[in-house]
Each structure stands twice: as C-alpha cells, then as structure tokens.
Protein 1
Amino acid sequence: KNEVEQSPQNLTAQEGEFITINCSYSVGISALHWLQQHPGGGIVSLFMLSSGKKKHGRLIATINIQEKHSSLHITASHPRDSAVYICAADNYGQNFVFGPGTRLSVLP
Amino acid sequence: DARVTQTPRHKVTEMGQEVTMRCQPILGHNTVFWYRQTMMQGLELLAYFRNRAPLDDSGMPKDRFSAEMPDATLATLKIQPSEPRDSAVYFCASGLVLPAMLFGQGTRLTVV
C-alpha cells in the first residue's frame, strides 16, 4: 500500500464543472502540499495545509488530520486547469512522500 | 518575475559519464530542494538544503549521487557514474517560507 494515494487517477470534466481530487495518506505529517504540474512539465506549489481549509481564487484545499485525508476542489473549472495535481505529505520538512498524481482534463 | 533557473534543460549522456546539473535558486531563498520525476516512481525528493547546509539526502543513492551548494546562488547535483536508470527529469525548487516553493523547469536527463 502506497503511503500517499490519490483518486481519481484520471479525470475528465466539462468546462464549468466543480472538481474534487482526493488524497489520503498513512504517514505522520506536519503538512500536506498540493502541487500542479502543467502539460509542459513546470510545477507550481498551490497549497500547504496543516489544518482546516485554504482558498486561492477558484481553488480550495481542505484537510482532515484525524481521517488523514485532503481534498482539492476547483470551482468553475476551465480548460487552463488541465494539469496533473499531486499531493505530497510533509514530515516537518524532513521527508516528502508524493502521491501518484491525478491527471485532469477540462474540455471546453 | 523571479524564477529558479536550471541548466542544462536537456542532457543526453553515455552510461558511465559524469553528469552535473545546476540550479540557481531565487535570491534570498534559504531552502533548496532536488526532486526526480520518472514515469514509474513519480516525483521523489532526493535532497534538500537549508541555509546551504544539507538537511536530508536520504532519498539519494549515495554511491553515485552528490548534492552541494557551494554558495547561495548555486546548487549542484552530480551523478558519477551515470546509469540508464538515472534517466528522469530532475527538478530544483527553492523557497523561503514554505509552501512558497518555486520550481525550476527541470533538467531532462537521458542516459544511454
């Protein structure tokens, strides 16, 4: 069993749809990161969460420490949101364990 | 815009050769990470530095990989000798206050 799992693996949505990507982890963490990797390969750090919820534009990330689960939501999805979304468990900066990624395609 | 610069962007080398990848972090950032991405393993953390001191390199095969920060403007990742299984995209990222890591564009390494 992988220490960090994501679902779904692949997701295709129509423009405007509400999207949820899930991440569950079995390791102890101090924080959970969400990263976005563009089709060209570039990676952007979206959020770091240790509790509760964070919002940035149309992106919302939540985490439930007790359940060891985090979700990334995208409201009013757009084709430019098409990317691979990766969650990473951070053990106080000492160790990062990455999820396998969720490939999102948003169709116009 | 400030950006993390990695060189070279692409490298093809023969098995057994030394490979050096360079990263110029954002000026003022005190944390530098090296990651490797392959199709099979996804993203893996190889090593990271804070204030130029290596904090963790447990993800790195020590017998052939070495990471250094000779000064605050340069981080290097060396592989000697390189092997075909080292073929991957190597990313450098820098940050000051996490999570604001900024990633470089990566170095695509192919070892034949």
Protein 2
Amino acid sequence: DAKTTQPPSMDCAEGRAANLPCNHSTISGNEYVYWYRQIHSQGPQYIIHGLKNNETNEMASLIITEDRKSSTLILPHATLRDTAVYYCIVRVLNYGGATNKLIFGTGTLLAVQP
Amino acid sequence: GAVVSQHPSRVICKSGTSVKIECRSLDFQATTMFWYRQFPKKSLMLMATSNEGSKATYEQGVEKDKFLINHASLTLSTLTVTSAHPEDSSFYICSARGGGSNQPQHFGDGTRLSIL
C-alpha cells in the first residue's frame, strides 16, 4: 500500500471548516483513499473514501487532486465532538486477499477549539 | 450504518490467564475480519486478517500461538490471548468488512486488556 503523510496536529475553531491534508504521492491507479477518525479510547470510525472524483456524504467532503497525489478531508462546520485523530489511508480495492487490509499511519490530531 | 460489536470492553486479569475477545458484525455478513492492537499514544497495528472458515493470516512478528484467532461464522470472530502477561496489556480492536468490493471496514469499540 502507498505511504501517506499527514501533519501531526491541527487546530480549528468551532463552527469553522476543518481542512485536513494528506499527501500520497506514490499512490497507484487502483488504490483508493480512505479516511477514518478515532476519538479517544474508541475504535476508528469510517468517514469517507474515493478513487479520483470528489466525494461528499453527511459527515465530510473529500477533495482529491487531479494527479491523485494528495487529498483534503473537509469537515464543513467543526464541532467539539470532531476532536479526534484523523487517518488517511490508501488501499487497493480487490475481492479479498492480503492487499485489502488497512494499514494505519500516525494520523492528524485535530483539536477543535471553543 | 454497519455495526461491529466487541466484547468485553474491558478486562483485568492475572498473569497466566487466557482471555477471549469476541467480535460480532450485527447487521452484515463479515467475510473478512481484522484484529489490531494499539499502545497508548500510538497508532493501530494490524495483527492478523481472517476470512470465514479459513486460518488467519498473521502479520510479521505476531505470534500465532499466542494470539489465537477463530472466524467460524460470517458474524463472529474471536481473539484469544493465551497465557497473558503484563506486556500483552493493550487496546485490542477488531474490524469487519462485508463481501462487496466497495465496502469499507467497520470497527468495534475495542477491548482494553490489563494483565496484572
């Protein structure tokens, strides 16, 4: 799986948009970008994933650059409950097999400030 | 959304005890389940991958005789930490994925294991 690079920490004011960057310059054509977050002492929570088109759901938006070497997760209106570690992961999407596992990096600790 | 239930949420036991952790997919059939462990202030580390009805595939450095994984049905996988010692104390998290190629992994809320 391609390696990802994220800033170790970020701050965001409550109510403002949180933009979390991720660099995946060695991504392959068949690797998807996944975002998860982990609130303290809980299991990771799935947020969103995409291949090359921008994606949006009820939680967030995912913007992938045209060359797919980087992406940004956008939380449109951050709340205190969005304080968590956010993980950007790239993964091959196959019908099973060893390449289907999620390998977590160190992530970005997003602190939403009141 | 998809729900993965993990039980127990916390275990405290004496050194030498074997501990079993259950992971259940409540509203979907999990063809593949994953077990992770996480030390304080560290990221999740994948321990093993299991497919229903077959032997688990362990990551390098993970002792398969120490961490026994059973995935006997499409909704249940168990991790047994055999003869646990204080260094096995950690946060253990399971994850499950359905059979569709576009299905994300969903995680349980973890089990905090403390060996005295």
